[in-house]
Design a protein that fits this description.
329 residues, alpha+beta, Rieske Iron-sulfur Protein, Naphthalene 1,2-dioxygenase Alpha Subunit, Chain A, domain 1, 2 domains, 4-stranded antiparallel β-sheet, 4 helices, 16% helix, 2 iron, 2 sulfur cluster binding, iron
Amino acid sequence: MTDGFPSLPAEGLPAEGADGLYSQSWFPLCLSEDVPAGAVLGVEFLGGKAVVFRGREGGPARVLSGYCVHVGADLSVGEVVGERLRCRFHGWQYDGGGACVATGIGDPVPPRARLFRFPTAERHGVVWAFNGEEPLFGVPGLPYREDELTVRRSVLPELPVEPWLVQAHTMDLQHLCLPHEFVLDDDPNDSVRIDAHSVGFDLRARMRDGERFDVRVDIHGTNIFWQTGTLDGRWFFWLAPLNIPGPGRSRAVFVYGAHREEDEDPKITEEFLDRARTAMMNLFDDDTPVLGTIRFRPRHLTHGDRTLARYLDYVRAYPRANPARDYLT
């Protein structure tokens, strides 16, 4: 900071995939319902392919690198046998930890034959994979059990933009009052919080149509939008994590919901979620034309950009890795 103004961001904002490295975060690969018992699903991830599969009897989803280590066949066209994933080409089988446990012809398994196993979690109806050998933080939770919530989920079309840049719009607090036309109760810059793996702020305002909007907004990693709070006094949540299929690309999952009031007619809950979705999608629609066309070059920042400047410093310092790089392509 100089004379009360943010320092000009230096060159070097990290492009995802530069030097083969990506932000170390949890990424949404698919919805849990997309991988029923005995299914295998291929997903573009970190510039290559991963596979998500579930055992024949159900159980947890597993996420592994997507190509057989024998001769490179695509495992997403394979099949699940018991708790193992079997390659369609030569029958090599892998357990949930990625180890090859059998060859199709019966030869001994080479001692180093294994896939990369991504740390995996299933929360909020989403299958998440962490880019790293061990997670740096957990998938955030909600204050209510899922069986107490009415929840909706959807996967959006791909955007030609990196997740950290989508989240830069969230941390660009002056645009709350400009394209979004919020009327603020107080300055959200005063509530900004930053730690090693998340940034966020509190927003107390009225929306352009007069709705009361009191929420806590957090960005976990560089790709997970996480919002909880109230719309006209009623609690709801809105999660919008983004996957990275490859450099310069992102794909969002929307998960949102409300706590069911005791003895409430389900139609009332659904009507409230319709209102919440309309409010949030109006904000999304404000930003989409910009996100699809921006050439992000923050050259002349002012005092109103001080939180954006802090976020950009957070992105620059954020840990990046890709221990699966030799397995994904």
